[in-house]
């Protein structure tokens, strides 16, 4: 269960992602900076080391959503976590390198997923879908877009949450500093399993991650818990992001800070 939103901006992009999980699942670690192949990346992580969203200082973003396709065949038993995918891929500079990991023989044992990729230099948005046997790919225009998943029904989640996104876009400015956070804390039309901020007896929205990229840096802002219970970000990590650069030669440098209200952190 998750909601992912992408909003292009004049000098980059912004992404918001609710992570919806079973309430008994262990809490994830807050975002930190990592380095590999001369590339710096920032992401929150699970105890296993996996993650559901990450960005690097080439501007590349990857986000993972569970997928519940119509049952067309018997899936193999789960042998590997989907969360291990992004840490294997985020230290690459472009989609060509990322796709080497997405071969069917390398995905065996993983349950179905949708992987969203954003590459600002090419103004490209890609979605890869793994159904347990085959990998498919779709490309989207450089425009505002939303993705939804729900263990109850992907189709119903898309119907209800799309309506909320349309209403938010017609009544506000998607490029405004607080628009994504306000959207992702929404209970419209009522609090429940298909509101963007999910509330179920057994599950709910357990975190919110917002990424804002411009020509100077990529900023990851994180709420540890439900957005409807806070008015700011609990953790903010800024990573210098000179788009179009060569792989890093200097040591990795990033800045982390504690609580920031939305309006001041998002400018």
Describe the structure.
By secondary structure, the chain is α+β, with helices and mostly antiparallel strands. It has one domain (2-265): Penicillin V Acylase, Chain A (4-Layer Sandwich), CATH 3.60.60.10. It is 15% helix and 38% strand. It is built from 6 helices and 16 strands. It has helices at residues 85-89, 95-98, 104-107, 154-171, 179-184, 262-265, and strands at residues 2-9, 12-22, 29-36, 39-45, 53-56, 61-66, 113-119, 124-130, 135-140, 145-149, 203-213, 217-224, 232-233, 235-240, 255-257, 260-261. The strands form 3 sheets. The chain has a 7-stranded antiparallel beta sheet with strand order 10-1-2-11-12-14-15. It has a 7-stranded antiparallel beta sheet with strand order 3-4-5-6-7-8-9. β5 and β6 form a beta hairpin. The longest helix has 18 residues, at 154-171. The chain is globular. The relative contact order is 0.20. The mean pLDDT is 87.
| CATH level 1 class label | Alpha Beta
Q: What proportion strand?
A: 35-45%
- What order do the strands of the largest sheet run in, or round the barrel if closed? 10-1-2-11-12-14-15
Overall morphology = globular
Largest sheet data: 7 strands, antiparallel
CATH topology-level name: Penicillin V Acylase, Chain A
The CATH architecture is: 4-Layer Sandwich
Give the averaged pLDDT, no decimals: 87
The number of domains is 1
The helical percent reads 10-25%
Q: Structural class, judged by helices and strands?
A: alpha+beta
What ranges have pLDDT less than 50 throughout 5 or more consecutive residues? none
- Tell me the series of helices and strands, N- to C-terminal: EEEEEEHHHEEEEHHEEEEEEH
Strand tally, please? 16
Kindly report the name of the CATH homologous superfamily. Penicillin V Acylase, Chain A
Rg over alpha carbons: 17 Å
Distance between the termini: 29 Å
Oligomer: single chain
Number of separate helices: 6
């Amino acid at each position: 269960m998750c909601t992912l939103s992408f909003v292009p901006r004049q000098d980059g992009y912004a992404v918001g992602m609710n992570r919806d999980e079973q309430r008994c699942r262990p809490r994830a670690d807050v975002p930190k900076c990592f380095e590999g192949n001369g590339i710096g990346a920032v992401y929150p992580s699970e105890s296993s080391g996996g993650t559901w969203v990450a960005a690097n200082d080439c501007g590349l973003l990857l986000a993972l959503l569970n997928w519940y396709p119509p049952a067309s065949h018997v899936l193999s038993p789960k042998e590997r976590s989907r969360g291990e995918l992004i840490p294997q891929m985020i230290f690459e500079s472009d989609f060509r390198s990322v796709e080497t990991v997405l071969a069917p023989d390398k995905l065996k044992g993983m349950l179905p997923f949708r992987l969203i990729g954003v590459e600002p230099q090419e103004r490209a948005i890609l979605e890869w879908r793994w159904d347990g046997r085959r990998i498919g790919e779709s490309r989207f225009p450089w425009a505002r877009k939303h993705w939804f998943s729900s263990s109850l029904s992907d189709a119903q989640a898309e119907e209800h949450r799309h309506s909320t996104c349309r209403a938010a876009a017609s009544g506000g400015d998607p490029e405004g500093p607080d628009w994504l956070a306000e959207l992702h804390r929404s209970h419209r039309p009522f609090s429940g399993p298909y509101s963007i901020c999910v509330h179920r007896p057994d599950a709910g929205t357990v975190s919110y991650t917002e990424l804002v990229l411009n020509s100077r840096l990529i900023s990851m802002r994180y709420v540890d818990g439900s957005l409807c219970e806070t008015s700011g970000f609990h953790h903010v990590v800024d990573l210098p992001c000179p788009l179009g650069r060569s792989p890093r030669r200097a040591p990795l440098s990033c800045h982390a800070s504690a609580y920031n209200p939305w309006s001041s952190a998002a400018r």
